[in-house]
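Me: I hope this is not a bother. Any chance you could explain this protein sequence and its structure tokens? It all follows right here:
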Amino acid sequence: MSFSELKQKDVINICDGRKLGRPIDLILNDSACVEALVVPGARGGLLNLFRPDREGCVIPWRRVRQIGDDVILVEFEGECPA
């Protein structure tokens, strides 16, 4: 699956049912394996796309539980930056 396919899916936190947004970035390790998924922080939205410092909520890849046709389910208990 490519990143262009992943970024079209909504990320849903199964801990509280919140929609966290769509992926804006991936973090890779030295071996080019995915370490984490980055979704917009609480300040997400259209204006966030044009900011050069696109901060986001980093979700470790081990917290991804399921990738479906339309959504990515994650188990994430942390807080996204405000």
Q: What stands out?
A: The CA atoms of residues 17 and 73 lie 9 Å apart. The radius of gyration is 12 Å.
